[in-house]
Model the fold of this input.
Amino acid sequence: MNIEFSDKDRAFQKEVRTWLESAWPTDMREKAGKSALGKLSKEDLVAWQKRLAEKGWAATNWPKEYGGAAFSPTESYIFDLERARVGAPGVVPFGITMVAPVIMKFGTEAQKAKFLPAILNSDVWFCQGYSEPGSGSDLASLKTKAEDMGDHYLVNGTKTWTTMAQYADWMFCLVRTSNEDIRQKGISFILLDMKTPGISVKPIVTLDAPADGYQEINTVYFEDVKVPKENLVGEEGKGWTCAKYLLEFERGNAYSPGLKGAMQHIKTLAETEIDGSGLPYSQQSAFSSRFSDVEVQILSLEYTELRILGALSAGQNVGPESSMLKTRGTELQQAVTELALEVAGDYALPLDQSTPADGDNFSPIGVEGHNGVAQEYFNTRKVSIYAGSNEIQRNIMSKLVLGL
Ligand SMILES: Cc1cc2nc3c(=O)[nH]c(=O)nc-3n(C[C@H](O)[C@H](O)[C@H](O)COP(=O)(O)OP(=O)(O)OC[C@H]3O[C@@H](n4cnc5c(N)ncnc54)[C@H](O)[C@@H]3O)c2cc1C
Done:
């Protein structure tokens, strides 16, 4: 197995590195670099994504005909690696990474023309309306109802855990259009304008919520919401096919570039931070051994990812192996936040350690590199739950990869 980058890949890596050095804005670089959480506002993210779009690199996974970068799997990997190296965020996934490929494959020409350019340019933000109270892992049991009223559907029900719904302009949503066949067959995939009367968004306050109002997830209620029939994607009752297709994109990404960036951040801190023993963490054998253990596991994940990239470059699909990446990737994301917590020591005790914005009248405790470390630790508990919990991923691997 040859896992070396080719000369062409190395030239591409140089191009990305040079571009990022000048294009990743200094103010955001400082904001993201100051805290472990790298918290950026919606305005920051839109500005950054527009810059990527101008360069033609916002949609790395899209074909050229829709304005995408059409990166090869290896180029995508290199791009993520370089992005993580300078601490620049990936694009918010719900539009570009998740719903756009579904619209490309199953949408009408009118849907493509309306949504794809707007998603690419970050003018339209989507959120994901899959889960409901009582329908998470068992998604096919969902109950949100869309009644056929002739030219429109009338939607009633509740979606929950909806990430960034408070910022979203549109939601892609799974609704029940029939109860007559097997459960999966009565589900349809619709696009829903979040400004439609009858929609209300209520925040869910989680363990990582600090006093500054930062909050990620929501419950979304629908009461007699009128959705034009033209917003149905694919055929009525065939939404399960769209839903499964989308999940391949939600789960099939590489984790090691981001993990390596986070480990570099911890390494820098561990070289300077000193605990009661008088030695920096990097020179304490117990910490070093835990750090190396995680580092080796990340390396082995990276090799697995490169192996899968090789298969993708040769024209194969990721398939159920994406469950393997999701499980190991998220476990290691959690392990990295545990190391960060350890190096921060007492400074990790306050939950609300956000980096002050201009005009804020408070100083965080300890060095800036520790800001947000407790928040990040609590926030990262979610990664083994969403996009299909890791227990569900293990079920998939045991059946479809191991054939048990
Ligand atoms: C922070 C966060 C953000 C999220 N964002 C979104 C979003 O934007 N949009 C959206 O639609 N959803 C979102 N989700 C929802 C997420 O997809 C669900 O939480 C997830 O699918 C699990 O469903 P559940 O919470 O109902 O738990 P349940 O399905 O009730 O599971 C409870 C526990 O039982 C285990 N379990 C369940 N079934 C099995 C089984 N068959 N075998 C073995 N173990 C099993 C699970 O692994 C879990 O540990 C988000 C969740 C979180 C935590």
